[in-house]
Amino acid sequence: MLWTLRGVLFRKVTLIGVGLLGGSLGQALRQRRLAGSVHGYVRRAASIADCRQAGAVDDATTDLATATRDADLVVFSTPIGQMRGLAELAAPALKRGALVTDVGSVKGGVVAELEPLCASAGAHFIGSHPMAGSEKAGVGAARPDLFEGAVCAVTPTPQSDAAALAKIEALWSAVGAGVLRLSPAAHDELVARASHLPQAVAVSLASLVLDPAAAPEQARLCAGGFRDCTRIASGSPEMWRDILLANRQPVAQAIDDFIARLRGLRDAIDRGSPEAIAQLLSSAKNRRDAWMNHRAVRSPAE
């Protein structure tokens, strides 16, 4: 698919939601000249100027049909709880053969809802999830290199059109991501551990340690380690509420598995066993070091 990197992939791209991910994709598409024009749909008129100033779009509007009409590619980059309703409203304006994707962190429900809806409008839906982001939100935090070196999961189904799938994968490759093809169910199980569990842990840790009932000296003693472990707890509550509810069974299982591992460490501490504690610490260190080394040497196209 090297041909896709040498020219425009899409004549018109519409971003439904122009926040961190949507805005970063818009910037990347425009800077790399991968789209003839990029249009955004936003909920508030005041956001239009912000999107333009950030260089995320050529134009933006609060009219969903206007934003979507004649688009070759439509990307849903809203909280996943809003996607179905917006897709139902946008469907009449979709042109036949249009490609539709999303950037949501849960794929099972999104694919099950949006794939048939888009098909009924003559369009093709392929789910996407770029593993890139920040605890910061909004188009002001967008940056065009956000996807470089990241992994983007693409989640086709047996009903997926082969040409549509190839072009969605080409999209993410063209903005610098490595594509990983997974089924929606496999994606949700794996991401529950890699992304959703860390969020649950960070939220719980911040809530516990920074409880207003704690001694006033508690927060003053929280330094770099606490800051690093809880950084993502500053993410959007609305977005994470939707994610945890949409993927609740895999997330619940991941939390149970984590509690079991934590209980194992607690048991070793209770027993006063230096050998058991050292083994747990060394195993975790070795696994993370190996993962970090792999990340440092792998190519972006992996």
How are the SSEs placed, and which strands pair?
Blueprint: E1 10-16, H1 20-31, E2 35-41, H2 46-53, E3 59-61, H3 64-68, E4 73-76, H4 80-90, E5 99-102, H5 108-120, E6 124-125, E7 127-130, E8 151-155, H6 162-174, E9 178-181, H7 184-209, H8 217-220, H9 224-230, H10 237-246, H11 248-271, H12 274-297
Parallel strand pairs: 1-2, 1-4, 2-3, 4-5, 5-6, 8-9
Antiparallel strand pairs: 7-8
Helix pairs in contact: 4-5, 7-11
| Annotated CATH architecture of the largest domain | 3-Layer(aba) Sandwich
**Average of pLDDT:** 92
| Global geometry | elongated
The end-to-end distance, rounded to whole angstroms, is 14 Å
Q: What's the number of domains?
A: 2
Q: Output the CATH homologous superfamily of the largest domain.
A: NAD(P)-binding Rossmann-like Domain
Q: Name the CATH class of the largest domain.
A: Alpha Beta
Instruction: Report the uncertain regions.
Output: 1-5
Widest sheet, order of strands: 3-2-1-4-5-6
Radius of gyration: 21 Å
- Determine the CATH topology of the largest domain: Rossmann fold
How many helical stretches? Answer: 12
Broad structural category: alpha/beta
Record field, number of beta strands: 9
Strand content: 5-15%
Fraction of residues in H or I helices? 40-55%
Q: Element order, helices and strands?
A: EHEHEHEHEHEEEHEHHHHHH
- Mind summarizing the main beta sheet? 6 strands, parallel
